[in-house]
Amino acid sequence: MKAVIAIVRPRFVRSLLLAVALLGATFTSSASVFVSVAFAPPPLPVYAQPICPGPEYIWVPGYWAYGPEGYYWVPGTWVLAPFFGALWTPGYWGWSGAVYLWHPGYWGRHVGFYGGIDYGFGYFGVGYAGGYWDRGGFYYNTAVNNVNVNIVRTTYNRPVAHSAGVTHVSFNGPGGVSARPSC
Question: Relative to the CA of 10, which of 26, 45, 104, 141 has its CA 20 to 30 Å away?
Fold first, then answer.
């Protein structure tokens, strides 16, 4: 019987140590994910915005992601806002002095800094001109968004003046957009 216990105990200890190590790795790896690339993403493609599926959807513009095969395009999509008043701040690629880093997008009550990238459809480099929240829901600017006014009644049309020399540069840094956060 003692021989069996001697064999079981080291396995148990090894299993316990492995479980603790894996659990620790899970907690540390979920804290944040950093993507860095030595070369800039391609220009933003020109594409048509699909029609808004219904009230309280927010446009989340497409972007270049990076994987084992290199950059690949993630198309823009309409996303149901996660809470009343939610606005999307798009992610962007920014130069860090040695590599391009991906700064992920996020939901919040205000649109934050997204590298000055002109994603179109209301995201022209600063803020968001695609609409706003009010007591009745989200009001869509039909000058920049593809909205069926027979389905979505909370609309307005306010043309947006933005740079006439629109480029399709998809990153912030040397050779790209040189915007800086205002606060």
Answer: 26
- What would the DSSP string read from start to end of the chain? -HHHHHHHHHHHHHHHHHHHHHHHHHHHHTS----EESSPPPPPPP-PPPPP-STTEEEE--EEEEETTEEEEE--EEEE-SSTT-EEE--EEEE-SSSEEEE--EEESS----TT-EEETTEESSS--SEEEETTEEEEETTTS---TTT---EE-------SS-----EESTTSB------
How far apart (Å, rounded) are the C-alpha atoms in residues 130 and 127?
Answer: 9
Nearest to 94 by CA among 42, 45, 40: 40
CA-based end-to-end distance of the chain: 70
| Mean pLDDT, rounded, of the chain | 83
Q: How far is CA 112 from the centre of its chain?
A: 12
Average pLDDT on 59-80 reads 96
- Whether the predicted model's global pTM rises above the 0.85 cut: no
More confident residue, 182 or 88: 88
Q: What is the mean pLDDT of residues 13-20?
A: 40
Q: Using 50, 70 and 90 to split pLDDT, how confident is the model at 33?
A: low
Q: Rounded to whole angstroms, what are the CA distances from 151 to 113, 122, 148? A: 32, 20, 6
